[in-house]
Design goal:
The complex is a heterodimer.
Chain A lengths: L1 H4 L19 H13 L15 H4 L12 H10 L12 E5 L2 E2 L11 E4 H4 L12 H9 L4 E5 L4 E12 L4 E3 L2 E6 L4 E11 L2 E3 L2 E6 L4 E9 L5 E10 L4 E8 L4 E10 L5 E10 L4 E10 L5 E10 L4 E10 L7 E10 L5 E10 L5 E9 L3 H9 L4 H17 L5 H14 L8
Parallel strand pairs in A: 1-5, 4-7, 5-8, 6-9, 7-10, 8-11, 9-12, 10-12, 11-13, 12-14, 13-15, 14-16, 15-17, 16-18, 17-19, 18-20, 19-21
Antiparallel strand pairs in A: 1-2, 3-4
Helix pairs in contact in A: 2-6, 7-8
Chain B lengths: L4 E12 L2 E13 L4 E5 L6 H9 L4 E10 L2 E2 L5 H7 L1 E4 L6 E5 H15 L7 H14 L10 E2 L5 H15 L3 E5 L7 H14 L5 E5 L3 H6 L4 E6 L2 E6 L3 H8 L2 H9 L1
Parallel strand pairs in B: 3-10, 3-11, 6-9, 9-10
Antiparallel strand pairs in B: 1-2, 1-4, 4-5, 7-8, 11-12
Helix pairs in contact in B: 2-3, 4-5, 5-6
The chains are: A alpha/beta, B alpha/beta.
Pfam family, one (chain A): SUFBD_core
Organism (chain A): Acetobacter malorum DSM 14337
InterPro entries (chain A): Fe-S_cluster_assembly_SufBD (IPR055346), SUF_FeS_clus_asmbl_SufBD_core (IPR000825), SUF_FeS_clus_asmbl_SufBD_sf (IPR037284), SUF_FeS_clus_asmbl_SufD (IPR011542)
C-alpha cells in the first residue's frame, strides 16, 4: 500500500519550481497526479524495461524563447526540408516546443490553431494514468491543433519539432489532429534537434467515420536528447488510422501509442522500425483497444540493434467483450548486430470476446550466416553484404508506409544513419 | 601440378553438435585450364564439403593440405576474394534473400567483382541490358530479375538463377554442386548449354553430380570418383556410363584393397 501513500515528488527535482504556482484546473490536477506517482521507475510495470534515470541527472529548465535562426535553417536543410519534394509541403515548425512562424507554411485545406492561444487540452489523454502525459499537461506551452473539415483532403502536412539548446531544457508540446467525417490527411511528424533536452509531446488524434489519417513519424532527435512521446488516437466507424514510427535518434526514446477502435469496421496500423547503436535505448509501447466489433489492427515493428543499444517492445492488444470478429495481428522482430545489443519484447493479448482472429509473435536473431556467405561468395565484401541484409530487413518494414513522400524521407534518413558498425561493434 | 587448380592432401572437418567430424581425408585433385571435370560418388562422400571449402565457407576447418589457385594460396583468401579471383560456386540449395531485389543483387555482385578485378563498374542501364540478355538465353521469365533473390522461385528457377549469376560474374573456375538435381530434362539441357557457352581455354569447371544424365549434355574431360573423403578413382568421360551400370561398389572395393 505504501506505493499509494508515498509522495514521490523527489523524482520531479529536475523540473525545479516549474511545477509550482499553477492555477489552471487541468494543470493542477495533472501536477497533483504527478506528485503522487512521481516519474516512473523500473518498478512500475509499464516502465520495467526503460529507465528514466537519464532525466534525473540534470536540471531541465524551460527553454529560452529566442533561438538561433541560422541554426534552425541549417537543421531544416539537413533534414532535406529546404529542397526536393519536401520543400513545397506545408509545414508547422516548432522550436523548443514553440511555434516558429518564420519557418512555417500553413496548409490550405486544414484549419490550424495553436495551444498557446486556445489552452484546450482535449479529452483523450489520461494524465492520471500516465505520468509522462501528466508532465506534458503540467508544462505544455504550445502545440499545433489541426482540423480537417468533413470530406476535405488535407494533403501532406509536415509537423516538425526541433530542439536547439546549449543548456539542458525540456519542452512539452501539446498537439491534436481532428478529422471530421470522410476527411483525409497525411501527417509527417519529424522530431529532431541539437543539444541536451527532453522532448515530451502529447498528440491527440480523433478520426471520425470514414475518415483516413496516415501518420508517419521520423524520430531523429539529437544524440544527447530524450524523446518521450505519447499519442492517443480514437477511430470511429470505418475510419482508418495508419501510423508508422521510424526511430533513429535520441539517447533515450519512447514512442507510446494508445489507439482505440471505437466503432465497427475501424482500422488501425501501428507499425514501426528502429535502428539504434551505441548506448541508445528505444522503446515502442502500444495499447490497441478493440472496443467495437469488426475492427482490424495491424502492428509490425522491426528493430536493428548494434553496439550496446537496447530496444524495447511492449505491445498490448485488448479486445473488449463486445468486439466480436476482431482481426488483430502483431509482430515484433529484432536483428541483433552485436553481442551487447538487447531487445526486450513483451507482447500481450487480452481477449474477452470469443469470436476473434488475433495472432502475435516475436523473433530475434543475428544476421543469417548462410545469407552472408551467399553474398560473399558472389564477391560482395563482408561489410557491404551485412549492409545489404540489414537494409533488406528494414526495407520490408518501410514498405508498410503507404505515402510515397514519407517513405522516401524515411528511406533516405535510414540510409544516412548507416553504417552501423556490424561485427566491429 | 597444373598451375591452375591444384588440391593436395586436403583434410577438413566440421563441428557438428560439439562433435568434430572429419569429412575430407586427403583430397588430391588437379584441374588444368580449360577443362571440365566431374566428381561423382555416393552420398556423404564429401563432395559438397569440398565445394564449400573451396568457396571459403567458415563452418569448415581445414586441418591439412593445400589448395593452389592460379598461383595463389586459395585457403588464405576470404570468400569475396575468391570470387574476385575467378572462383564461382553454384549452390546445391541456393539461398533466399527476402527484401533483396534480384537485379540489384546481381549488379552489386558484378560490380564488386569488377572493382576487385580493376575494371570499371557497369551503370544500371548497361547492366540491365546484359542481365536481360543472359536471362533470356537461360529461358528465364523476365520478372525473375524484379523479384527478391530466390524467394518463391521453383527449384528449377533457382538453379537457372545460379547459372545466370555464373554467366554475369565471368568466373575462370566454376563449381557446380548438383546443379542438375531437381531439374527436368528441358531445364537440364538449358542449364548444361549455359555452362557449355562459357567453355573456353580460360574457363574450367568442377561438376558435382549423382547422375550420368547431366554429363551427356556437359561432357567432362575427366571424371573422379569420391568416397569417404578422398578421390578413389579417376578416368575419362566413359566412366560415367560405367558408374551408371555398375554403381560404386567396385571402386569402393578396389580402394579398400589398395
Amino acid at each position: 500500500m505504501n506505493a499509494i501513500t508515498k509522495d514521490r515528488s523527489d523524482t520531479l527535482a529536475p523540473f525545479g519550481t516549474r511545477l509550482d504556482g499553477v492555477t489552471d484546473p487541468v494543470r493542477k490536477a495533472a501536477i497533483g497526479a504527478l506528485h503522487r506517482s512521481g516519474l516512473p521507475d523500473r518498478r512500475v510495470e509499464e516502465w520495467r524495461y526503460t529507465s528514466l534515470r537519464f532525466l534525473s541527472e540534470t536540471p531541465l529548465a524551460a527553454p529560452a524563447e529566442v533561438y538561433d535562426a541560422g541554426q534552425i535553417q541549417a537543421q531544416l536543410e539537413n533534414l532535406g526540408l529546404s529542397t526536393g519534394p519536401l520543400a513545397d509541403l506545408p509545414r508547422l515548425v516548432f522550436v523548443n516546443g514553440r511555434y516558429a512562424e518564420p519557418f512555417s507554411v500553413l496548409p490550405a485545406e486544414v484549419k490550424v490553431s495553436f495551444f498557446a492561444k486556445t489552452q484546450t487540452f482535449g479529452s483523450l489523454s489520461a494524465p492520471d494514468r500516465d505520468p509522462l502525459t501528466a508532465l506534458n499537461a503540467a508544462l505544455a506551452s504550445d502545440g499545433a491543433q489541426l482540423h480537417v473539415p468533413a470530406g476535405k483532403n488535407g494533403g501532406d502536412v509536415l509537423l516538425v519539432s526541433l530542439g536547439q539548446t546549449d543548456t539542458p531544457v525540456s519542452f512539452h508540446p501539446r498537439h491534436s489532429v481532428t478529422l471530421d467525417e470522410g476527411a483525409q490527411l497525411t501527417l509527417i511528424s519529424i522530431q529532431a534537434g541539437q543539444g541536451r533536452y527532453l522532448h515530451n509531446p502529447v498528440l491527440e488524434i480523433s478520426v471520425a467515420a470514414e475518415a483516413n489519417l496516415k501518420h508517419v513519424t521520423l524520430q531523429t532527435e539529437g544524440q544527447d536528447a530524450a524523446c518521450l512521446a505519447t499519442t492517443y488516437a480514437q477511430v470511429a466507424e470505418r475510419g482508418t488510422y495508419d501510423s508508422f514510427v521510424l526511430g533513429l535518434g535520441a539517447a533515450l526514446s519512447r514512442q507510446e501509442i494508445h489507439a482505440r477502435l471505437a466503432a465497427p469496421f475501424a482500422t488501425v496500423h501501428v507499425n514501426g522500425a528502429q535502428m539504434l547503436g551505441g548506448k541508445q535505448i528505444g522503446d515502442v509501447t502500444s495499447v490497441i483497444t478493440h472496443a467495437a466489433p469488426d475492427c482490424i489492427s495491424r502492428q509490425t515493428v522491426r528493430n536493428v540493434l548494434d553496439g550496446h543499444a537496447r530496444g524495447v517492445f511492449q505491445g498490448k492488444v485488448f479486445v473488449d467483450r463486445v468486439a466480436q470478429k476482431t482481426d488483430g495481428y502483431q509482430m515484433n522482430q529484432a536483428l541483433l548486430l552485436s553481442e551487447n545489443a538487447e531487445i526486450d519484447a513483451k507482447p500481450e493479448l487480452e481477449i474477452y470476446a470469443d469470436d476473434v482472429k488475433c495472432s502475435h509473435g516475436a523473433t530475434v536473431g543475428a544476421l543469417d550466416d548462410d545469407q552472408l556467405f551467399y553474398l560473399r561468395s558472389r564477391g560482395v565484401p563482408d561489410a557491404e553484404a551485412r549492409q545489404i541484409l540489414i537494409h533488406a530487413f528494414m526495407d520490408e518494414a518501410l514498405g508498410l508506409i503507404e505515402d510515397e513522400t514519407a517513405r522516401a524521407l524515411c528511406t533516405q534518413m535510414l540510409a544516412r544513419s548507416f553504417p552501423v558498425a556490424g561485427e566491429s561493434a | 601440378m597444373t598451375q591452375f587448380l591444384d588440391i593436395s592432401g586436403l583434410c577438413a572437418r566440421i563441428d557438428a553438435d560439439g562433435q568434430e567430424k572429419e569429412i575430407l581425408k586427403g583430397v588430391d585433385l588437379s584441374i588444368p585450364p580449360g577443362e571440365v571435370h566431374a566428381i561423382m560418388g555416393p552420398n556423404g562422400s564429401g563432395k559438397s564439403t569440398l565445394s564449400y571449402v573451396l568457396a571459403g565457407r567458415e563452418d569448415y576447418e581445414v586441418t591439412a593440405g593445400t589448395v593452389n589457385f592460379q598461383g595463389k594460396d586459395l585457403l588464405e583468401m576470404e570468400p569475396e576474394e575468391r570470387a574476385a579471383a575467378g572462383l564461382f560456386l553454384a549452390f546445391q540449395s541456393p539461398i533466399e534473400l527476402p527484401g533483396v531485389n534480384n537485379a540489384n543483387f546481381l549488379r552489386t555482385a558484378v560490380n564488386a567483382v569488377r572493382r576487385a578485378r580493376g575494371k570499371d563498374e557497369l551503370d544500371a542501364v548497361t547492366f540491365l541490358k546484359t542481365a536481360r540478355a543472359a536471362a533470356k538465353e537461360l529461358s528465364m521469365a523476365p520478372d525473375m530479375l524484379k523479384r527478391n533473390v530466390n524467394v518463391g522461385f521453383s527449384g528449377g528457377e533457382k538453379k537457372r538463377n545460379e547459372v545466370l549469376q555464373m554467366t554475369l560474374l565471368e568466373p575462370s573456375f566454376a563449381i557446380l554442386d548438383e546443379t542438375d538435381s531437381g531439374l527436368d530434362v528441358d531445364a537440364l539441357r538449358i542449364v548444361a548449354e549455359g555452362v557449355n557457352r562459357l567453355r573456353s581455354p580460360s574457363f574450367s569447371a568442377l561438376v558435382i553430380t549423382h547422375h550420368q544424365r547431366l554429363l551427356d549434355y556437359l561432357v567432362p574431360d575427366r571424371i573422379h570418383v569420391m568416397a569417404k573423403g578422398r578421390i578413389i578413382h579417376s578416368g575419362g568421360p566413359e566412366l560415367a556410363q560405367q558408374i551408371d551400370r555398375e554403381g560404386y561398389t567396385r571402386f569402393l572395393a578396389e580402394a579398400e584393397a589398395a
